[in-house]
Design a protein that fits this description.
The protein has about 375 residues and is an alpha+beta fold. Helix content is about 55%, strand content about 20%. It folds into five domains: about 25-70, no CATH class; about 75-115, no CATH class; about 120-220, Band 7 domain (Tetrahydropterin Synthase, Chain A, 2-Layer Sandwich); about 235-295; about 305-365 and about 375-384, no CATH class. It has eleven helices and ten strands. The longest helix is centred in the C-terminal third of the chain and has 70 residues, at about 225-295.
């Protein structure tokens, strides 16, 4: 009959063992018996055997503890970090990046990042020199240069730096006007905060270096924010117009210089052309002077005919004053040339014109023209 069937209570292996009810074995009793065997020599197998087994157990435990102690001493310092080693709480040395070992419970290593740039912001409402309230927000960027001083020069370096930044901002804003903080004086305020912050933290020798300070925002009170926004927009427009004017000036100035150079070159060319033409006229008159001296009347008559030929080439109507008869002759050359254009070449029409001019001249000479009449004719020619 199975022990768990009805009527099989006496067959329960955990009860009635040794004449009394007994439950499952206790784990505490098992471990106590096990350690007792190591300490007493295996349950009474002899005094020499018990001592050897007990010493072996202690040795194994000590070896295991030593291995754990050695393994727990290995640590790694990253590339951007430097390790500050404290031996029994006192500074011992710096540790370079890499895999290192330290005696546990003797040395303590504190890794400090010395390459990364950290940032910290400060914001608050402050009173300006002209008794206006502005909300200013700035951000400081810093880097750790001396790990030991950063860890032990002050109790809390982050809090100390935050308080120093807040104090520097309030000092600068309190000695500045509201318009300067909100508009064109931001860069000057940023530089002043930087200088003031360095002056505050240098005596503490915190082991940090200020990399930069950013002027993130400056806002007026909500009641006058719209007016200040308009003022800032107007100043930005002013700067934009100034830049546009400077750009236009840089663009138009080379163009004007080019026009000046072109006009100067044109004037120089005109000067040379007029000079050459004048010299040509001088040469022509110098060649004509001997001919005039040899035959003045013939030369004057030839010059007159050549001049009249040039004048009549551009004239379609000619009026001839015949003083001898008191009549005025009208020659419609445009009509004559128009009628003869389909029959005669242009060269024949020009010869016809010359013939008419010669006939006119001969007629004027046959009408007892005096030298004074010729001079009057030349005077009319000059007026024409």
């Amino acid at each position: 009959m199975a022990w768990n069937e009805p009527g099989g209570k006496n067959n329960d292996p955990w009860k009635n063992k040794g004449g009394r009810d007994q439950g499952p074995p206790d784990l505490d009793d098992i471990f106590k018996n096990l350690f007792g065997k190591f300490s007493k020599g295996g349950g009474g197998d002899g005094s020499s055997g018990g001592k050897s087994l007990g010493g072996m157990g202690i040795t194994v435990i000590l070896v295991l503890l030593a291995v754990v102690w050695v393994i727990s001493g290995f640590y790694t310092i990253r590339e951007a970090e430097r390790g500050v080693v404290l031996r029994f709480g006192e500074f011992s040395q710096f540790v370079e990046p890499g895999l290192r070992w330290k005696p546990t419970f003797v040395d303590e290593v504190i890794p400090v990042d010395v390459q990364s740039i950290s940032s910290m912001s400060s914001e608050g409402s402050m009173l300006t020199e002209d008794e206006n309230v502005v909300s200013v927000e700035m951000e400081v960027q810093y880097r750790i240069v001396e790990p030991y001083k950063y860890r032990f020069a002050v109790t809390n370096p982050e809090q100390s730096l935050s308080q120093a930044l807040n104090s520097a901002i309030r000092y600068v804003v309190g000695h500045s006007k509201m318009d300067d903080i909100l508009t064109r004086g931001r860069e000057a305020a940023r530089q002043q905060v930087w200088q003031e912050l360095e002056g505050i933290i240098n005596p503490y020798d915190m082991g940090i270096s200020i990399v930069d300070i950013n002027f993130k925002d400056a806002r007026p009170p909500d009641a006058v924010r719209a007016a200040f926004d308009d003022a800032i927009a107007a100043q930005e427009d002013e700067q934009r117009f100034i830049r546009e004017a400077e750009a236009y000036s840089r663009e138009i100035e080379p163009r004007a210089r080019g026009q000046v150079n072109r006009m100067a070159e044109e004037a120089q060319a005109y000067k040379e052309r007029v000079t050459l033409e004048a010299r040509g006229e001088i040469a022509r008159f110098e060649e004509l002077l001997p001919q005039y001296n040899a035959a003045p009347e013939v030369t004057r008559q030839r010059i007159y005919l050549e001049t009249m030929e040039q004048v009549y080439q551009n004239t379609t109507k000619i009026m001839i004053d015949n003083k001898g008869s008191g009549n005025m002759m009208y020659l419609p050359l445009d009509k004559i040339l128009e009628n003869q254009s389909n029959q005669l070449p242009r060269a024949n029409s020009r010869s016809t014109l010359e013939g008419l001019q010669q006939n006119n001249i001969s007629t004027s000479q046959s009408n007892n023209s005096t030298p004074s009449t010729l001079r009057s004719d030349r005077n009319r020619q000059g007026r024409n």
